[in-house]
Amino acid sequence: MIKSAKGFIPVMLTPFKNNGDIDYDILTQLTEIYLKAGSAGLFANCLSSEMFELEDEEKLQAIKHIIKVVDGAVPVVATGTFGGLISKQADFVKRVKDTGADAVIVITSLLAEESEPDELFNERVFELFDKTDNIPLGFYECPVPYKRLLSPQQLIDFVATGRVIYHKDTCLDIDIVKAKLKAGDANPNFGLYDAYMGHAVKTLQAGSAGLSCIQGNFFPELIVWLCENYADQSMETEVNRVQQFLIDNMDVMHNVYPIVAKYWLTKRGLNISTITRRNVGVFYPSIRKQIESLYANYSDLRNKLEIKNYL
Fold first, then answer.
1. What is the pTM of this model?
2. Which distant-in-sequence residues (6+ apart) come within 8 Å of 179 by Cβ?
3. β-strands 42-44, 164-169: how paired?
4. Which of 18, 26, 161, 293 could serve as a FRET partner for 2 with CA atoms 20 to 30 Å apart?
């Protein structure tokens, strides 16, 4: 269902009004931008969405709103686990599925404490499976509250049950990614989406289902272009240029994110506030200057590649 083609799954932002409420008008426009850019699906209620700063009803309302705007054009996945007893997490997974989400995402670091062993983590995963009525699930190796990486064998075992169709990988190691891709041998509906753009081309070449990265909140059309052209030998020079561009500019896009992403979108013409609920630091003038430089460099790259601007 998710793995219909190699593609880009945006990690969605949540726009806020000046009073801190969710701005649903801008959320509509943002969702439409992702779709126009050619996204293969959407990841709602994720870390980029400031999911830990949203109340439960806000999470559910935002997911419902996004699914309504999408209107079946692409699959939508959304996070459904936020800690506590597995029975409690299972109940919220069901509520997220009831919004119409195609799969509900499990945060790996919220099923076990950092000090707890993989054996206990595995037990809780299977307990969650048992309590969630065959709902399609996915994993996200979210860095908050800590990063808990799945081993290749863990992922293979979980996918083999038929319950797991999505995995957002953050291990940053292409060799481990390649080992994890073997999970797809047991379930053709499974797709691994890599978050790390340092090896974006290599992960696509290795057989990943696509990319799911914060860079897509700056230039979704560029990530879509890479997913569409990475294997075209006639475009090898251009593909390598895009890969190097992503490597060279990685740090600035992580600086006080998602403030910088929202500011970037204002430069592209979206009337989105830079307000965030999550405390990510101060948007210093020096960071703003780096974003201005990135914007100029990206505009030049987009023109050379003849990529349409969807904003």
1. 0.96
2. 152
3. unpaired
4. 26
Tokens of 168: 């957002």
In the block, residue with structure tokens 């459904």: 80
Token output for 187: 């379930």
How many CB atoms are located within 10 Å of the residue 88 CB?
13
CA angle 148, 133, 188 (to 5 degrees): 65
DSSP assignment of the chain: --TTSSEE--B----B-TTSSB-HHHHHHHHHHHHHTT-S-EEESSGGGTGGGS-HHHHHHHHHHHHHHHTTSS-EEEE---SS-HHHHHHHHHHHHTTT-SEEEEEGGGSS-TTS-HHHHHHHHHHHHHHTTT--EEEE---SS---PPPHHHHHHHHTTT-EEEEEE----HHHHHHHGGGGGG-TT-EEEE--GGGHHHHHHHT-SEE--GGGGT-HHHHHHHHHHTT-GGGHHHHHHHHHHHHHTHHHHHTTTTHHHHHHHHHTT-------SS------HHHHHHHHHHHHHHHHHHHHHTPPP--
Q: What's the rounded Cα separation, in Å, for the pair 162 and 137?
A: 9
Write out pLDDT tens, residues 244-290: 999 999 999 999 999 999 999 999 999 999 999 999 999 999 999 99
Any idea which residue has 């940053």 for tokens? 172
Can you read off the two tokens belonging to residue 148?
Answer: 């808990």
Question: What tokens were used for 74?
Answer: 């692409």
Query: In this structure, what token pair is assigned to residue 303?
Result: 């023109």
Q: Which residues contact 116 (CB under 8 A, 6 or more apart)?
A: none
pLDDT digit string (tens) for 135-194? 999 999 999 999 999 999 999 999 999 999 999 999 999 999 999 999 999 899 999 999
